[in-house]
Amino acid sequence: xYINSLVLGDSILVRDTDGDYRVNDFKPKLFFQSNKKTDYLxxxxxxxxxxxxxxxxxxxxxxxxxxxxxxxxxxxxxxxLNQFMFERYPAECTTDFSxxxxxxxxxxxxxxxxxxxAHLAEWPINAITVKCNxxxxxxxxxxNGDTFTTIxxxxxxxxxxxxxxxxxxxxxxxxxxxxxxVTGWNIDTFDIPYIYNRVSxxxxxxxxxxxxxxxxxxxxFRSDSFGRxxxxxxLLGIARLDYLTLYKKFVLAPRENYKLDTIAEVxxxxxxxxxxxxxxxxxxxxxxYQLFMEYNIKDVELVEGIDKVRNLIRLAVTLANYAKIxxxxxxxxxRSWESTIFHHLMNQKIVPQMKFRMNKKDESFxxxxxxxxxxxxxxxxxxxxxxxxxxxxxxxxxxxxETLIDPFELPDEIQKYYCNIEFDKIKNQEYDxxxxxxxxxxxxxxxxxxxxxxxxxxxxxxxxxxxxRFKEKNLMKLAISEGRTEDALLxxxxxxxxxxxxxxxxxxxxxxxxxxxxxxxxxxITKSGxxxxxxxxxxxxxxxxxxxxxxxxxxxxxxxxxxxxxxxIVEKECKGMPKSEKLEFADQFEKQVIRKIIDKTFVDFSxxxxxxxx
Length: 614
Known about the structure:
The protein is an alpha+beta fold. The chain has helices spanning 57-70, 80-88, 163-177, 187-202, 205-208, 243-250, 260-268, 281-287, 289-310, 312-323, 333-346, 389-396, 412-415, 423-427, 457-481, 485-509, 519-544, 567-573, 579-608, and strands at residues 2-8, 11-16, 21-23, 29-34, 40-42, 48-53, 102-109, 125-132, 135-140, 155-159, 181-184, 217-223, 229-235, 239-242, 350-351, 370-371, 381-385, 441-443, 449-451, 554-558, 561-565.
């Protein structure tokens, strides 16, 4: 089973559960337009393409650089790894989680004052715990004849008299076990760079590089959104899945903060071991070595416990295998979607055009829309959530780079509307768009238009992901009903992965770093979302205002959800009834009245704008 791959010089190094291997003879390809009929087509289907293979990755990159300078048309994928994965792993990558060796790690440092800086690694490492395959492998550096004792069968404790001996034994263990994945809380900016830098100080950089199965590392600094700079160390060949990063990315519920103590209490009802009686970890280490080591082990077990609840490691692996990318790339919608799109197209012998000079965001586009809340006390508040609204908009309007119509292609009677539409007029259906159907065109509230005689590849992908998710949810329910807990977890993880991928496409399309970035596509999606939200707002208010004492029923809205009150309606229709009957009335009112208004609104503007799908 594929784990990860990387380019090193002219070789591709692959880690697989069936064995690691090196590919020295991979020949990446570029595609160019051809006057002769070939097996390959451009995304618009109008040009044939012929492939040219290059003897080395170096030569491939040289040709790419030349084409970039010449602004010449070239097709394919700039990333040799995407091409490699398409050739060597053509079938969908399976996920056998039991074959992946995962290290869950936490270290402690004997810091004299302040907080230890990972890039400086000034202070000794005095405790390490690595949990792997159910065993806590623990390294300790006691003082003054102290020791750590335990009767736990799942703790393998190793004691040392010097930090050098501790670190040397730890590196030997790491090299022998060869982990595929390393995780832990905040390992990206603390544990991994601290270990690497400390090993380098105690021994050498060459010795520290042995932490990589290829004896190669990538060290760099990067700033976060607050301008704080941190050092990162990539141990090439090992996937770093920082659980803090995964949690922030995939758990969307707001949290007070993202300290391990806080998240563990929210998810598990547990906290880190309390050492407040000692004032600091430094004092705890000197005064109660037993509790100090238990504290180190506990941190690892809290991360493990959170993952048993959230299954984010499994989720990351599932996403990576579907998109055919490295595990650590799953937090990047751009990386996920560029690979997913490439494989989807190449399976049909369709080759995307490379973009060397990406469109820059020299202009902004309108994003999500918010209906300002009506301040005050409201009774009987209901909400409607439009699940996966943006992916469904892509399907409905057939949005895609190859279906986007240039203005010069439009007949005169339609061309006058190109990017020349007033939002309120299209919302109120004041334009005459009856000619759209004849010309196989749909128009977005952005004023951009898309072909409807051929499905866009983005729409195809949305449909495939929706279908896969629906199938996996049904298989999950079946497994639950039959008591197959492990199978249910696998199906649930897969459907969750599909949901994440579906909802991340818009973010990729809206980034100028993405191969498929296009402001016209991004704005068409968001403005169509606004049309949906505001049309439903108007329809609900117009239909129900007279039953609500002449007041609007919609009290708030945000991107893909709308909130409304039926307090006056409930009190009028259910006067004197017990609360249980009022609840039943509200439930039926939502199903029989509200939902029908919403469904009809979608159908109406779908017909009016000649949408591809509804």
